[in-house]
Each structure stands twice: as C-alpha cells, then as structure tokens.
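TICKET: design request
STATUS: open
ATTACHED STRUCTURE:
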C-alpha cells in the first residue's frame, strides 16, 4: 500500500480517499476555509498534488468560494507547474 501512495504522489496523482472517508467528510459540517488554507499551505510548499486535491475538495463543498483571487492564483500556479488545465474540476 505504501508503494502505491508514493508512486501516486510522484506522478502528482495522490490516492483517492476510501469511500467511507468521503462519506464522513460530506456528513461532517464543512470547514471550507480550513480546506482552502491547507491547500494554500501545500501550494506554498510546492506540493502541487495535495494543493490541487484540497482545492478540489473545498470546491466540492462550496463552489462559490472558488471565485476568489487567491484560489485563482493557486490554480494558475498548479497549471504552470504541472502543465495541466487550470479550470475547475
């Protein structure tokens, strides 16, 4: 299991959360600002895979928060670093 996780991170594709964890994150009250702060911290550390993962999770919970300048800058930084589309997933 460890090898799969490390291999996915190296390719900028972190392993998805298990089904039960995704369910629990939907049931627990959303902490959208905390998710975005984690994403911004990952972006500052140039951990692009986790930055994108946290931004996507925050977007799934609150689509309107996606339209801020800081999120837009983070998405552009991810696109520049990984060479992928910067759009909303």
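STATUS: resolved
RESOLUTION: sequence designed for all positions
ATTACHED SEQUENCE:
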């Amino acid at each position: 299991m460890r090898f799969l996780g490390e291999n996915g991170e190296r390719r900028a594709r972190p392993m998805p959360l298990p089904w039960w964890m995704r369910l629990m994150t939907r049931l627990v009250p959303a902490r959208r600002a905390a998710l975005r702060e984690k994403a911004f911290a990952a972006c500052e550390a140039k951990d692009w895979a986790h930055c994108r993962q946290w931004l996507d999770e925050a977007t799934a919970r609150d689509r309107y928060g996606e339209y801020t300048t800081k999120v837009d800058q983070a998405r552009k930084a991810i696109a520049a670093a990984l060479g992928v589309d910067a759009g909303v997933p």
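CLOSING REMARK: Residues 39 and 53 are 8 Å apart (CA to CA). The chain has one domain: 2-82.
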